[in-house]
Specification:
two-stranded antiparallel ribbon; 8 strands
Length: 562
Amino acid sequence: MKKIFSHSLLIIFLGLVTSCMGDLDTMPLDNNQLVSEQVYKTKDGYTGVLAKCYASLILTGQQGGDGGDGDLEGANEGYSGYVRLLFYMQELNTDNFLMPSSSNGLRKCLNLQWNASNASVIRWTYQRLYMSIAYCDEILRECTESKLESRGLWDEMKDDYTFYRAEARFIRAYCYSMLCDFFGAVPYVDENTGVKDIPEQWSREAIFNYVVSELNDIESELKAPGENVYGRVDRVADWFLLARVYLNADSWIGQNKYKEAYEYAKKVIDDGTYPLASDYREIFLADNNTCKEIIWPLTQDGLNAQSSAGTNFYVKAFVNGPMNELYQTGVGSKGWGNVRAKTTLVDAFDADDVQFNTSDTWGNQKKDKRATFMTALSNQTKETWDANLSMTSTFTCGYGYIKWRNVTKEDQICDSGDTYSSIDFPLFRTADAYLMAAEAILRGGGGSTTEALGYVNEIRERAYMSGKYAQAGIRSDVSGKISASELTLNFILAERQRELASEVTRRTDLIRFGLFTKGHNWDWKNAVRLGEDVDDKYKLFPIPESELTNNPYLKQNEGYDK
């Protein structure tokens, strides 16, 4: 069993709370509604509340393992976990993956045909982000010098409470950055918002500026790089999120912030606390808590942090029992196998790297080790349509994508077994910073083309396990490096697809490159087999209809009024 931040404390905390999210909407929680006053009698209680702020992004309720006491009233607990929702919001509607399912609005997400009422997963994403914000606001109200003194905890917590507050503010800023990305102009609430106050809707630019301001304010209050407990954020996470937000400033608010994006991405790289992993594939295994590249992991454990909505989904949805007969998936016959790669993702790799070799299940003899596809099932085809040119639910159409494996580096199932995943989700990792820096340079943010080429080639050399990444017994005769003439923005977009597929950045990337709604098509976009352009309104999701009913101040995003 891996060591995970404060799971024992989180379990104690969860035992003292009840599910109270049914009436959340965008309203902050009352102190007594969220936690018993008993929680704040001890430092462990405060740590448990902070653990809940983190856990709200990877777990789904009070009991674990889809135990029936979910955070969101009326929501399917397995479907409505944040990391699983990110897949639907950031991957399913892009050129990466297909799910034939029509439940909970998934077909609408796949086809880019959603509206304000026909996709539950959009509403749950909105509510989950505000739920996490509410938890952060709660600890910020309670973790103050005056309250710690009144509870007799100041001497015990005076050296830590600033870090607790900074981390809660960071998680809240992250949530607002995602709301800004998904929905644009959204309501603002913080620890000072009253329970009966109706939050006002801030403009997208105001939300953007708030996120930047918060991240700048807390930078010095977060722990120094590498000094925090595993699973908690430090200053490098702050720099990473600033780089990401600045990189998207042009597509979000029409402002060029590539200089700032380059500077912060470069800080992540130059700091060196989170170096690139020596083997790309080890980032997505059950013992990836030993991987130094992951800046901010959302932690999972098959015994103590169970959920069908975290990396359990990323393993089981991508594989099935017949695949497990060909290689060690780590979930045995428990895989669902209902996610397949779209042809555009497969075609992003060299065709000879795509094929699965049953005598080389780790892909050691491939050139690009990121080409992790299952092609060896009987009657399986690359195309995501059948002989009648229709989408099928028989799962023979489309290749499986097997990047996530619930096994250790030694190809062993961990002690927690194969029922739930023990893979931590790498929400932020250093390779993304390399690609952000390179992109920002090419967009005029500073640096040199030589520097940008170096960043991209470092990523590719690691992918091909050549040069300094070469290991005995693993093919390394092809370097993967490109020339300066090959380095273009389009190449970087393609490289981001190869490096980060399923890591929930693709929709945002395509929008930033102007290729999400127009000029680039893929399987089943707008419900057309080879895809077709869609209305630009789909660059934003609609504010859920239920939220418009609850908050008269909200204005719907353009194009979704009817």
